[in-house]
Amino acid sequence: MRTFLKVVGFSFCVILFYALYASYGIPQVKPEAPPVEEKLNLGSMTMDQFIALGDKIFNGKGTCTLCHNPVGGRAPILDSVASMAMEHLKDPRYKGKAKTSEEYIKESMVIPSAFVVAGFGVKGTNDTESPMPNVTTGAIGLNEAEVDAVIAYLQKKAGQEVTVKIPTGAPAGKDEKAAETAPASPAKKPEELVAKLGCGVCHKIAGQPGVLGPDLTKIGAARKEDYIRRAVLDPDADIAKQCPTGPCLPGVMPKDYKDKMTAGEFEMLVKFMANSK
């Protein structure tokens, strides 16, 4: 009996030691809070600032460069889209309602299938359907002012006259400013996280209809958790051989997703994908 008590006592001490060491001896990982949506003070914004905002959105929140880049070849380069607009409006395949360059760019952002540049349509649709989502809905969710800012940026980039007018809007109030600085709450469900990260822009996952990247609806049947973790943290470590639009290429998937979610969100996403079979 005495020996048993000694074993129990020793085991308790060991467990207590490791519990205290884990709590106080190991540095705690405190991931940065997810980014919050920028509050636009349109009332005091100059056109140069509005164009700069469009640049920031185009290369950030809008996720435009995921596809419109010279590396992946998944979508046309947009450097001259404003100067090419009138030519596209005259194309027999055009089925939209735009009359001007500004209207064409906006229409391309919200009704992408109104005109699909040859060779960039969804496979099997003869370039009648665009793989691009409506940027005002889903994970991207640009508002009207943000769409206009991107149009202004693209017009300026193409060396065209900027015809967009800065939308009128009152400066943020006290309560709105407080909300602006408050950190966003971590996602509670994997579907919510997938939407927040914009995974569905390229991938089929959690009900999102992406048609550019590999289909992830049954990724767990082929890949284990360690592989999925590495794929998110270092997308170029293992490149899938085939994407819906052609061979998968390195340098397309962003490498900063680890900075856009908490450690808890990351593990939730990994387990969700590992269980998708």
3D architecture notes:
The chain has 277 residues and is mostly helical. It folds into two domains: 140 residues, Cytochrome Bc1 Complex, Chain D, domain 2 (Orthogonal Bundle), CATH 1.10.760; 85 residues, Cytochrome Bc1 Complex, Chain D, domain 2 (Orthogonal Bundle). The protein is built from nine helices and four strands, in the order αααααααββαββα. Helix 2 packs across helix 5, helix 3 crosses helix 4 and helix 4 crosses helix 5. The chain is globular. It starts with a helix and ends with a helix. About 9% of the residues have low confidence.
Which tags fit this structure?
277 residues, mainly alpha, Cytochrome Bc1 Complex, Chain D, domain 2, globular
**Poorly predicted segments:** 26-36, 170-182
Gross morphology is globular
Radius of gyration using CA atoms only? 24 Å
Order of adjacent strands in the largest pleated sheet: 1-2
For the record, what CATH class of the largest domain applies?
Mainly Alpha
Average pLDDT figure? 82
Question: Which percent range describes the beta-strand content?
Answer: under 5%
Major sheet: size, sense and barrel closure?
Answer: 2 strands, antiparallel
Count of extended strands: 4
Task: Tell me which CATH architecture of the largest domain applies here.
Answer: Orthogonal Bundle
Order of helices and strands: HHHHHHHEEHEEH
Portion of residues within helices: 25-40%
CATH topology of the largest domain: Cytochrome Bc1 Complex, Chain D, domain 2
Distance between the termini: 51 Å
| Structural class determined from secondary elements | mainly alpha
Number of helices: 9
Summed up, the domain count is 2
